[in-house]
Amino acid sequence: MSDGRSRGGGTGPSRQAKPTRPGREGVERVSAARLVAFDVLEAVRRDEAYANLLLPARIRRAGLSRADAALATELAYGTLRLQGYYDHVIELAAGRPTSAIDPGVLDVLRLGAHQLLATRVPTHAAVFEQVALARRIAPKAAGFANAVLRTISRTSPEAWRELVAEAARGEDERLARLESHPKWVVRAFRSALDREGRAAELGELLAADNASPRVNLAVLPGVGAEALGLHGLEPDRYSPIGAVADDPIAAADASDGRIRVQDEGSQLAALALTRAEPVRAGERWLDLCAGPGGKTAVLAAEALIGGASLVANELVPVRAELVRKAIAGVPLDVDVHVGDGREVDVDELGATGGFDRILLDAPCTGLGALRRRPEARWRKQPADVAELTRLQGELFDAAVRALAPGGILAYVTCSPHTAETHGTLGAALERWGDVVEQLDTAAVVQGLSRHPLDLAGDADTVQLWPHRHGTDAMFIALVRRPTTEARGGAR
Fold this sequence. Notes:
Rossmann fold; eight-stranded mixed β-sheet; four-stranded antiparallel β-sheet; 47% helix
């Protein structure tokens, strides 16, 4: 390979010089922040790693200063969020499709495009260091990388947006190109907003997905409330247990698990179940799909206060271990069970007669958390939705079967896709309509929120949005199994 073109097998960049040994003789130095960012992009592409889990570990391993850590974070997340847009720019600048460019060199170009078009990094620094990085991973591609990056640098960011938009066929494709989302996701978001009569907000939603979100904290009730006011914490806008801080990571690290990093929407979803009505001592609760444990920790703290017990079920053993770590700061004996939620046995879990409250935080496309997991938008396909909705329906059925008379089930997804929200819920209610009844979920969430939420749609459900509420796009629906129910229903 002499000019950055793919070698045909898709096997990744040349390994003549790994970009983990800066400063070797004869090789230009590349800043540690850029090396970390590249390492994360490469792992996301090659190993399907999760940037939000990998990046902090890479930053710690590299011993980055606070300023360099901030740069590495901006480069990694910013590039992943806008990867689709940058690929269109790179194709125009290179005169060839990105599929014809070596994957490692393409990552270098994406990082360079982000610095040139979306940051204040000086042009000469962005070009020089990215070319040096290209020379490390594929020496013969350095000239190609230099030519492409200099071509990008000679045109303004505004002009590039016009050039990228010119090739679009239709409004959805134009938005997909400019806001760096797959077109099918744009259409899904449009449909979800249109259901609320808010389709005009689509551009705001897509832009919000590409903005760096503020880190939210959950101050676990009963075990961490006294910490509010320490570590520079201030109350969050909506969640009664939510907080923000100038240095949220330090606040969480210093709290022995009592303060956790958690999106405000996730907090509201868990609290909607625990505070839908007063807790009676002795209640039995189930978190049906508990991993990785953020909502489980909130449930555990609330159960501790109310005198309830909690079982956390998780299919994957590694994720079950994450649940155990998440609840370590709560002095409640939580039974962490490893098993398929579709086959949950209430007798085996010590809840003969059923559970009084069940959280079904269902596996989903994760399209509601694209701000925090930017790579997820490139990994999901429309075909995934059908498979996930089948799974969601099966888990919903299992949850209803495990629900005690008078018990409450919270159906939650971190996706606004209507097939995963109203579609799954509606189909389940057709099967179980004579067994469960919907609750006024909007009233519950409004009642526990610190400030009124701008909600649209049916009162039976709540859809949160990044652009409207500053949260992940969480969907919440509460249903109850009445103490006296009609005969029949799905079984």
